[in-house]
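Entry type: protein chain
Record version: 2
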Amino acid sequence: MKIRAAVLVEFGKPLSIEEVELDPPKTGEVLVKLEACGVCHTDLYTASGADPSGYSPCVLGHEGAGVVAEVGPGVKSLAVGDRVVTLFSPECGECIHCKSGKTNICLAIREQQNLGRLPDGTTRLRRNGEELRHFMGTSTFAEYTVMPEIALAKVNPAANPEATCLLACGATTGIAAALYKAEVEPGSTVVVFGAGLVGLGAVVGAKLRGAEHIWIVDPSKERRDFACRVGATDALEGGDDAVQQILDRTDGFGADYTFEATGLVHVMGQAVEAARMGWGLCTVLGVAGKGQKLEIIPRYLITGRRVQGGSFGGARGRTHVPKLVDLYLEGKLPLDEFISHRRPLEAVNDGFELMERHDGIRTVLSFDS
Protein backbone atom coordinates (compact mmCIF):
# COMPACT_ATOMS: atom_id res chain seq x y z
CA MET A 1 0.00 0.00 0.00
CA LYS A 2 1.06 3.60 -0.54
CA ILE A 3 1.27 5.87 2.50
CA ARG A 4 2.56 9.31 3.45
CA ALA A 5 5.57 9.26 5.74
CA ALA A 6 8.30 11.55 7.11
CA VAL A 7 11.58 10.18 5.75
CA LEU A 8 15.02 10.87 7.17
CA VAL A 9 16.99 11.10 3.93
CA GLU A 10 20.12 12.85 5.20
CA PHE A 11 21.33 13.57 8.73
CA GLY A 12 21.11 17.22 9.71
CA LYS A 13 18.51 17.99 7.04
CA PRO A 14 14.72 18.46 7.40
CA LEU A 15 12.62 15.33 7.11
CA SER A 16 11.02 14.80 3.72
CA ILE A 17 7.27 14.08 3.50
CA GLU A 18 6.94 11.50 0.77
CA GLU A 19 4.75 8.74 -0.58
CA VAL A 20 6.31 5.38 0.27
CA GLU A 21 5.35 1.74 -0.11
CA LEU A 22 4.38 -0.31 2.94
CA ASP A 23 4.13 -4.09 2.57
CA PRO A 24 1.48 -6.04 4.51
CA PRO A 25 2.26 -7.68 7.86
CA LYS A 26 3.94 -11.07 7.96
CA THR A 27 3.75 -13.75 10.63
CA GLY A 28 3.51 -12.25 14.10
CA GLU A 29 3.11 -8.73 12.73
CA VAL A 30 0.34 -6.13 12.79
CA LEU A 31 -0.65 -3.26 10.51
CA VAL A 32 -1.52 -0.16 12.55
CA LYS A 33 -3.32 2.94 11.30
CA LEU A 34 -1.76 5.81 13.21
CA GLU A 35 -4.08 8.37 14.78
CA ALA A 36 -1.56 10.47 16.71
CA CYS A 37 2.18 10.64 17.29
CA GLY A 38 4.31 12.70 19.64
CA VAL A 39 7.48 14.42 18.46
CA CYS A 40 10.13 13.21 20.89
CA HIS A 41 13.67 14.46 21.48
CA THR A 42 14.98 11.01 20.49
CA ASP A 43 13.64 11.58 16.96
CA LEU A 44 15.44 14.93 16.79
CA TYR A 45 18.60 13.39 18.27
CA THR A 46 18.69 10.80 15.48
CA ALA A 47 17.73 13.22 12.69
CA SER A 48 20.56 15.55 13.70
CA GLY A 49 23.17 12.83 13.21
CA ALA A 50 24.30 13.00 16.85
CA ASP A 51 23.11 9.47 17.60
CA PRO A 52 26.01 7.09 16.92
CA SER A 53 23.56 4.25 16.31
CA GLY A 54 21.39 6.25 13.88
CA TYR A 55 20.82 5.18 10.27
CA SER A 56 19.24 6.49 7.09
CA PRO A 57 17.21 6.44 5.00
CA CYS A 58 14.44 5.53 7.42
CA VAL A 59 11.00 6.61 8.58
CA LEU A 60 11.32 8.22 12.00
CA GLY A 61 8.80 8.39 14.84
CA HIS A 62 8.15 6.14 17.83
CA GLU A 63 5.57 7.82 20.09
CA GLY A 64 2.42 6.56 18.39
CA ALA A 65 -1.15 5.52 19.05
CA GLY A 66 -3.61 4.06 16.60
CA VAL A 67 -5.94 1.26 15.63
CA VAL A 68 -5.20 -2.23 14.33
CA ALA A 69 -6.06 -2.37 10.62
CA GLU A 70 -4.81 -5.89 9.79
CA VAL A 71 -3.12 -8.78 11.57
CA GLY A 72 -0.66 -11.24 10.12
CA PRO A 73 -0.63 -15.02 10.60
CA GLY A 74 -0.11 -16.23 14.15
CA VAL A 75 -1.21 -13.03 15.88
CA LYS A 76 -3.34 -13.99 18.88
CA SER A 77 -3.50 -11.06 21.30
CA LEU A 78 -4.75 -8.39 18.88
CA ALA A 79 -7.63 -8.09 16.45
CA VAL A 80 -8.75 -5.59 13.82
CA GLY A 81 -10.25 -2.56 15.52
CA ASP A 82 -8.20 -2.79 18.73
CA ARG A 83 -6.70 0.47 19.99
CA VAL A 84 -2.97 0.27 20.58
CA VAL A 85 0.05 2.22 21.76
CA THR A 86 3.31 1.54 19.95
CA LEU A 87 6.25 0.23 21.98
CA PHE A 88 9.90 0.79 21.10
CA SER A 89 10.53 -1.45 24.11
CA PRO A 90 8.69 -4.72 23.40
CA GLU A 91 7.56 -7.36 25.87
CA CYS A 92 7.60 -10.92 24.59
CA GLY A 93 7.08 -12.53 28.00
CA GLU A 94 9.22 -15.48 26.97
CA CYS A 95 12.90 -14.42 26.81
CA ILE A 96 15.20 -14.79 29.80
CA HIS A 97 14.89 -11.08 30.60
CA CYS A 98 11.09 -11.02 30.50
CA LYS A 99 10.88 -14.16 32.64
CA SER A 100 13.37 -12.84 35.19
CA GLY A 101 11.06 -10.11 36.48
CA LYS A 102 14.20 -8.03 37.01
CA THR A 103 14.14 -5.87 33.88
CA ASN A 104 11.89 -4.51 31.17
CA ILE A 105 14.56 -4.86 28.47
CA CYS A 106 13.21 -7.64 26.26
CA LEU A 107 15.71 -9.54 24.12
CA ALA A 108 13.33 -11.18 21.64
CA ILE A 109 13.77 -8.79 18.70
CA ARG A 110 16.47 -6.47 19.99
CA GLU A 111 19.23 -7.37 17.52
CA GLN A 112 17.19 -6.80 14.35
CA GLN A 113 15.39 -3.81 15.83
CA ASN A 114 18.72 -2.08 16.43
CA LEU A 115 19.51 -2.60 12.74
CA GLY A 116 16.26 -0.96 11.66
CA ARG A 117 14.62 -4.20 10.62
CA LEU A 118 11.66 -6.28 11.68
CA PRO A 119 12.26 -9.64 13.43
CA ASP A 120 12.80 -11.64 10.24
CA GLY A 121 15.66 -9.35 9.21
CA THR A 122 13.77 -7.52 6.46
CA THR A 123 11.81 -4.27 6.21
CA ARG A 124 8.26 -3.49 5.05
CA LEU A 125 9.07 0.01 3.82
CA ARG A 126 10.30 1.02 0.36
CA ARG A 127 10.90 4.33 -1.41
CA ASN A 128 11.34 4.34 -5.17
CA GLY A 129 12.35 0.70 -4.98
CA GLU A 130 14.90 1.42 -2.23
CA GLU A 131 14.61 -0.24 1.16
CA LEU A 132 13.73 2.06 4.06
CA ARG A 133 14.57 1.03 7.57
CA HIS A 134 12.24 1.09 10.56
CA PHE A 135 13.15 3.49 13.36
CA MET A 136 13.19 1.87 16.83
CA GLY A 137 10.99 -0.86 15.39
CA THR A 138 8.11 1.59 15.12
CA SER A 139 8.36 4.27 12.35
CA THR A 140 5.26 6.16 13.47
CA PHE A 141 5.82 9.36 11.47
CA ALA A 142 3.54 7.76 8.89
CA GLU A 143 -0.12 7.11 8.17
CA TYR A 144 0.38 3.37 8.74
CA THR A 145 3.11 1.19 10.20
CA VAL A 146 3.81 -2.53 10.47
CA MET A 147 5.07 -3.72 13.84
CA PRO A 148 5.58 -6.95 15.77
CA GLU A 149 2.63 -8.02 17.91
CA ILE A 150 4.87 -8.03 21.00
CA ALA A 151 5.63 -4.32 20.49
CA LEU A 152 2.02 -3.15 20.76
CA ALA A 153 0.05 -2.47 23.94
CA LYS A 154 -3.70 -2.98 23.67
CA VAL A 155 -5.42 -0.14 25.53
CA ASN A 156 -8.89 1.05 26.49
CA PRO A 157 -10.59 2.41 23.35
CA ALA A 158 -12.22 5.21 25.34
CA ALA A 159 -8.88 7.02 25.71
CA ASN A 160 -7.93 9.93 23.46
CA PRO A 161 -5.10 8.80 21.10
CA GLU A 162 -3.50 12.25 21.29
CA ALA A 163 -3.00 11.65 25.01
CA THR A 164 -2.15 7.97 24.94
CA CYS A 165 0.55 8.39 22.28
CA LEU A 166 2.60 10.21 24.94
CA LEU A 167 2.69 6.94 26.86
CA ALA A 168 4.66 5.36 24.00
CA CYS A 169 7.82 7.02 25.32
CA GLY A 170 8.21 10.30 27.21
CA ALA A 171 5.36 10.32 29.70
CA THR A 172 5.72 6.64 30.58
CA THR A 173 9.48 6.99 31.05
CA GLY A 174 8.97 9.52 33.84
CA ILE A 175 5.80 8.14 35.38
CA ALA A 176 6.97 4.52 35.41
CA ALA A 177 10.37 5.50 36.81
CA ALA A 178 8.66 6.84 39.93
CA LEU A 179 5.99 4.14 40.15
CA TYR A 180 7.82 0.96 39.16
CA LYS A 181 11.58 1.57 38.93
CA ALA A 182 12.37 3.72 41.97
CA GLU A 183 9.14 2.81 43.80
CA VAL A 184 8.96 6.17 45.55
CA GLU A 185 7.71 5.78 49.12
CA PRO A 186 4.87 7.79 50.71
CA GLY A 187 6.07 10.78 52.70
CA SER A 188 9.45 10.91 50.95
CA THR A 189 11.36 13.83 49.44
CA VAL A 190 11.89 13.78 45.66
CA VAL A 191 13.94 16.04 43.40
CA VAL A 192 13.41 15.97 39.62
CA PHE A 193 16.02 17.59 37.36
CA GLY A 194 14.40 18.73 34.12
CA ALA A 195 10.79 19.71 33.43
CA GLY A 196 10.33 18.31 29.95
CA LEU A 197 7.83 15.52 29.40
CA VAL A 198 9.99 12.87 31.10
CA GLY A 199 10.65 15.03 34.16
CA LEU A 200 7.01 16.06 34.41
CA GLY A 201 6.08 12.39 34.25
CA ALA A 202 8.38 11.71 37.20
CA VAL A 203 6.67 14.52 39.11
CA VAL A 204 3.25 13.01 38.44
CA GLY A 205 4.47 9.52 39.33
CA ALA A 206 6.00 10.74 42.60
CA LYS A 207 2.74 12.46 43.46
CA LEU A 208 0.80 9.24 42.80
CA ARG A 209 3.19 7.39 45.11
CA GLY A 210 2.46 9.85 47.91
CA ALA A 211 5.73 11.79 48.10
CA GLU A 212 5.49 14.69 50.55
CA HIS A 213 8.01 17.03 48.95
CA ILE A 214 8.57 17.11 45.18
CA TRP A 215 11.16 19.60 43.96
CA ILE A 216 11.45 20.47 40.28
CA VAL A 217 14.77 21.89 39.02
CA ASP A 218 14.69 23.65 35.64
CA PRO A 219 16.02 26.98 34.29
CA SER A 220 12.65 27.80 32.66
CA LYS A 221 10.22 29.60 34.96
CA GLU A 222 7.36 28.65 32.64
CA ARG A 223 8.21 24.97 32.95
CA ARG A 224 8.77 25.21 36.70
CA ASP A 225 5.34 26.79 37.09
CA PHE A 226 3.80 24.09 34.92
CA ALA A 227 5.45 21.38 37.03
CA CYS A 228 3.96 22.91 40.16
CA ARG A 229 0.51 22.76 38.55
CA VAL A 230 0.82 19.01 37.98
CA GLY A 231 2.31 17.99 41.31
CA ALA A 232 5.61 19.64 42.24
CA THR A 233 5.52 21.27 45.67
CA ASP A 234 8.60 23.48 45.23
CA ALA A 235 10.79 24.72 42.40
CA LEU A 236 14.43 25.68 41.85
CA GLU A 237 16.05 27.36 38.88
CA GLY A 238 19.13 25.19 39.20
CA GLY A 239 22.62 26.09 38.10
CA ASP A 240 26.07 25.39 39.48
CA ASP A 241 24.84 25.60 43.08
CA ALA A 242 21.75 23.39 42.58
CA VAL A 243 23.08 20.66 44.87
CA GLN A 244 23.82 23.11 47.68
CA GLN A 245 20.34 24.60 47.33
CA ILE A 246 18.84 21.12 47.74
CA LEU A 247 21.06 20.28 50.70
CA ASP A 248 20.10 23.54 52.39
CA ARG A 249 16.45 22.54 52.10
CA THR A 250 16.91 18.95 53.30
CA ASP A 251 18.83 19.45 56.55
CA GLY A 252 22.07 18.94 54.67
CA PHE A 253 21.42 15.30 53.76
CA GLY A 254 19.77 15.39 50.31
CA ALA A 255 16.63 13.86 48.82
CA ASP A 256 15.36 10.31 49.25
CA TYR A 257 14.91 10.05 45.48
CA THR A 258 16.33 12.06 42.61
CA PHE A 259 15.46 11.77 38.94
CA GLU A 260 17.55 13.14 36.07
CA ALA A 261 15.62 13.94 32.89
CA THR A 262 17.89 16.24 30.89
CA GLY A 263 20.52 14.08 29.20
CA LEU A 264 23.22 16.48 30.43
CA VAL A 265 26.05 14.66 32.19
CA HIS A 266 26.80 17.51 34.59
CA VAL A 267 23.17 17.46 35.68
CA MET A 268 23.37 13.69 36.11
CA GLY A 269 26.28 14.34 38.47
CA GLN A 270 24.18 16.83 40.41
CA ALA A 271 21.36 14.30 40.69
CA VAL A 272 23.78 11.79 42.22
CA GLU A 273 25.17 14.33 44.69
CA ALA A 274 21.70 15.53 45.67
CA ALA A 275 20.60 12.01 46.69
CA ARG A 276 20.48 11.48 50.43
CA MET A 277 23.52 10.11 52.20
CA GLY A 278 22.69 6.66 53.55
CA TRP A 279 19.92 5.55 51.20
CA GLY A 280 19.28 8.12 48.47
CA LEU A 281 18.43 6.64 45.06
CA CYS A 282 19.27 8.49 41.83
CA THR A 283 17.50 7.33 38.67
CA VAL A 284 19.08 8.50 35.40
CA LEU A 285 16.53 8.82 32.58
CA GLY A 286 18.17 11.23 30.11
CA VAL A 287 20.27 10.07 27.15
CA ALA A 288 23.75 11.62 27.09
CA GLY A 289 25.56 12.65 23.94
CA LYS A 290 27.99 10.46 22.00
CA GLY A 291 31.13 9.67 23.96
CA GLN A 292 30.09 11.53 27.09
CA LYS A 293 30.78 9.97 30.50
CA LEU A 294 29.30 10.39 33.94
CA GLU A 295 31.91 10.79 36.66
CA ILE A 296 30.92 9.82 40.21
CA ILE A 297 33.06 10.35 43.29
CA PRO A 298 33.23 6.90 44.94
CA ARG A 299 32.59 8.42 48.37
CA TYR A 300 29.02 9.20 47.32
CA LEU A 301 28.42 5.49 46.76
CA ILE A 302 30.36 4.29 49.77
CA THR A 303 28.18 6.47 51.97
CA GLY A 304 25.02 4.79 50.74
CA ARG A 305 23.82 6.53 47.62
CA ARG A 306 22.62 4.32 44.79
CA VAL A 307 22.43 5.01 41.06
CA GLN A 308 20.31 3.26 38.46
CA GLY A 309 19.18 3.76 34.90
CA GLY A 310 15.63 3.48 33.66
CA SER A 311 15.03 2.77 29.97
CA PHE A 312 11.32 3.45 29.36
CA GLY A 313 11.18 4.10 33.10
CA GLY A 314 11.42 0.39 33.77
CA ALA A 315 7.92 -0.12 32.33
CA ARG A 316 7.01 -3.43 30.76
CA GLY A 317 5.07 -2.09 27.82
CA ARG A 318 2.23 -4.54 27.30
CA THR A 319 1.74 -4.91 31.06
CA HIS A 320 2.08 -1.36 32.34
CA VAL A 321 0.98 0.97 29.51
CA PRO A 322 -2.65 -0.27 29.58
CA LYS A 323 -2.66 0.39 33.34
CA LEU A 324 -1.37 3.91 32.78
CA VAL A 325 -4.10 4.50 30.20
CA ASP A 326 -6.65 3.44 32.81
CA LEU A 327 -5.12 5.91 35.29
CA TYR A 328 -5.49 8.61 32.63
CA LEU A 329 -9.16 7.75 32.16
CA GLU A 330 -9.60 7.95 35.95
CA GLY A 331 -8.28 11.52 35.84
CA LYS A 332 -5.01 10.70 37.62
CA LEU A 333 -2.62 11.42 34.73
CA PRO A 334 -2.80 14.94 33.18
CA LEU A 335 -1.71 13.79 29.73
CA ASP A 336 -3.90 16.27 27.86
CA GLU A 337 -2.16 19.14 29.63
CA PHE A 338 1.21 17.96 28.29
CA ILE A 339 0.11 18.59 24.69
CA SER A 340 1.25 22.10 23.85
CA HIS A 341 1.08 22.04 20.04
CA ARG A 342 -0.86 20.07 17.43
CA ARG A 343 0.42 19.81 13.88
CA PRO A 344 -0.31 17.73 10.75
CA LEU A 345 2.29 15.20 9.63
CA GLU A 346 3.50 17.65 6.99
CA ALA A 347 4.63 20.04 9.76
CA VAL A 348 6.83 17.52 11.60
CA ASN A 349 9.89 19.73 11.09
CA ASP A 350 8.01 22.55 12.81
CA GLY A 351 7.70 20.19 15.77
CA PHE A 352 11.48 19.83 15.84
CA GLU A 353 11.93 23.61 15.73
CA LEU A 354 9.51 24.08 18.63
CA MET A 355 11.47 21.52 20.63
CA GLU A 356 14.80 23.21 19.93
CA ARG A 357 13.31 26.52 21.16
CA HIS A 358 11.98 24.79 24.30
CA ASP A 359 8.54 26.01 23.25
CA GLY A 360 5.92 23.95 25.07
CA ILE A 361 6.03 20.39 26.32
CA ARG A 362 4.98 18.12 23.46
CA THR A 363 3.93 18.54 19.82
CA VAL A 364 1.49 15.88 18.64
CA LEU A 365 1.08 15.05 14.95
CA SER A 366 -2.21 14.08 13.30
CA PHE A 367 -2.73 12.07 10.11
CA ASP A 368 -5.94 13.43 8.63
CA SER A 369 -5.76 13.47 4.85
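Comment: The chain is about 30% helix and 25% strand.
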